[in-house]
Amino acid sequence: MQLAWGQANVAWLSRLRPNAWDAVALPIVLGFIALMAYSGQQAAVPFQIGDQIPISLDPTNLPEYALRTVLRMAVALIVSLVFSLVYAALAAKSRQAEKLLIPVLDILQSVPILGFEAIAMVPFIRLFPGQLIGAECAAIFAIFTSQAWNMTFSLYQSFRTVPGELKEAARMYHLTPMQTFWRLEVPHAMPGLVWNTMMSVSGGWFFVVASEAFTVDNNDITLPGIGSYIKVAIDQRNLAAIFYAIGAMLIVILMSDQLLFRPMLAWSQKFKNELSGEEQLERPWFLIALQRARFFDLIGAAYDWISGGFTALTRLVLPPGKTKPLETSEASKIVDVVVSVVFAAGALYAAWALVKYITDAVPLSEIEHVALLGGVTALRVIILIGVASVIWVPIGVWIGLRPKLAQSVQPVIQFLAAFPANLFFPIFVVLIVRYTLNTDIWLSPLMILGTQWYILFNVIGGTMAIPSELHYAAQNLRVRRWLWWKRIILPGIFPAYVTGALTAAGGSWNAAIVAEIVQWGDTTLTATGIGAYISQVKAAGDFPRTALGIGMLCVYVILFNRLLWRRLYNLAAEKLRLD
Which of the four, 17, 42, 145, 529, has the lowest number of CB atoms within 10 Å? Predict the structure, then answer.
């Protein structure tokens, strides 16, 4: 007995003996930790509002600028993931919470980054007086606002569409609510979450200029990064510097694809809802290195020990026999009604206060004019989302049915989605001025350049998540052409498409701020719309009119979401689940 126990310990300890893969994976992980420490050190330097941080267009500074931008985006991504898990779980599991949280999420998605700057940047600066970390936190928060909503909508959609037989299996195995969440609901949401995480990171790149160059108390603040580098290059009309920035972005996106997203995508395939166990994607080299490096076995053992203790604790607090939902009593119904009334009263009071604040400073005729501007931008959004859907849904399905092709084009799509609209300004300005084109028409594509990829990413992810058994059944029954689209593909991708189209529409509203008014050097072109209005009044420091523009934009987005997207979400959750 003792000999067998000793041999087992020797075998377990031998797994921790370093091998060649440790020499590959460990330096990369430790290097990332060192870079995080370096970033924290740089954020602690003295800084006062009004101080100017010089941004050099020398391309030798781009590696450091790229590093600073990547670290800001990494921190924002971690915060977005935690926020999304908590927020989406509350909205999906509680009908009362859903009535409040989803409208709030609609509003947050519709508020442009300029709106968050006007409201939330100053508190971050004041929180760390005399230090650069306040401005860094403000930039991270701005990046967070361009990442979190898409991930939250993806998780919410996935939690709402968990197959009924899987929920029944969880009840049969007497899983606690916490175990059901981590062992069923989160794994079910993982494939869609990975694709939307990639899209969120690309969205962060799209708004990186607004995140790293902002205004606080009429003082311009530029933080070292690729975004501020692009802004200075545009202000100075330096085409060479813009091409240097594009090259740096391409290198960073390719590195993140190899070291983060490609391993995550291959890992997420094991959560696909199918029985065949077919391995569709080749494991990338970095995932192999992480799995074979002996050092990470120790980390895995520590994680298993901690998760085992946490599971035991949840079983102690929530025994399996008491996981049945409690019947709603009359008292709880009364409490729900009271809470709903209180929230409704608070929302009405806030709306009344905002309307009074705006009407005291802005005449009624201008409010009506801004409402018409919102209608013009809404028409652009509808047309652009329709065109993007017609183009990218068939292409996304075609790519999603070929996993190896999806793996190959993934970094290309990421790069296109991450390409900031500001970098297209020189092309659009030169063409529009040279050929005297209509700005209301030819500036519109800038609104969809970065957001159309939400549709493509979600359709690819939704197609790849369709169980292989359905494809095999369709082949055996000779389901082809339109019947194949009607019975297999469209129902299978519909929940993912709704998420992609909704976030693409929200992103298009947000992108209107930078797309309806463009500048290249001394030349400025303006299109008719609420985005141009917000940009102009924000630049003039007119806060009541800025609040009017953002508030009107939020009203339009909420109407669209409640009248269209929410009904499509309910349709996906109730009738088009893969049950």
Answer: 17
Q: How far is CA 185 from CA 455, 494, 502, 528, in A?
A: 23, 19, 22, 45
Residues 352 and 57: their CA atoms lie apart, in Å, by 48
For 526, the enclosing helix (H) or strand (E) is strand 523-526
Residues in the chain with pLDDT < 50? Answer: 1, 3-5, 7-8, 10, 12, 276-277, 279, 321-328
Other Cβ atoms within 10 Å of 571 Cβ, number: 13
- φ/ψ (deg, to 5) at 438: -75, 120
Residue 117 and residue 216: Cα distance in Å, rounded? Answer: 8
Structure tokens that stand for 528 in this block: 């008719």
DSSP 131: B
Parallel, antiparallel or unpaired: strands 523-526 and 517-520: antiparallel
**Span 481-510, pLDDT tens digits:** 888 888 888 888 888 898 888 888 888 887
| Tokens 């996304």, residue located | 396
Contact between 561 and 107 (Cβ < 8 Å): no
Three-class SS of 27-50? HHHHHHHHHHHHHHHHHCCECCCC
CB proximity list for 432: less than 8 A, separation 6 or greater: 439, 442, 443, 525
Rounded to whole angstroms, how far apart are CA atoms 561 and 564?
Answer: 5
Query: Residue 445 and residue 437: Cα distance in Å, rounded?
Result: 14
| Closest by CA position to 193, among listed 242, 156, 142 | 156
Please give the share of the chain, as a percent, with pLDDT higher than 90: 12
Sequence letter at residue 475 = Q
For the stretch 318-325, contacts whose Cβ atoms lie closer than 8 Å and that sit 24 or more positions apart, written own/partner, are 318/176, 318/177, 318/178, 319/176, 320/174, 320/175, 320/176, 321/174, 323/171, 323/174, 323/175, 323/176, 323/177
Phi and psi (nearest 5°) for 253?
-65, -40
Quick check: helix, strand or coil at residue 450? coil
**Cβ distance 168 to 252 under 8 Å?**
no
Of 565, 252, 537, 230, the C-alpha closest to 370 is 537
Taking the C-alpha atoms of residue 163 and residue 292, their distance in angstroms, rounded to an integer, is: 34
Contacts 24+ apart (CB under 8 A), 89-94: 89/155, 89/159, 89/181, 89/185, 91/156, 92/155, 92/156, 92/159, 92/160, 93/159
- Segment 193-205, tens digit of pLDDT: 888 888 888 778 8
Dihedral sign, CA of 33, 37, 38, 43?
Answer: positive
Residue 114 CB neighbours (<10 A): 23
The Cα 399–Cα 376 span in angstroms is 34
- Cα separation of 46 and 69, whole Å? 19
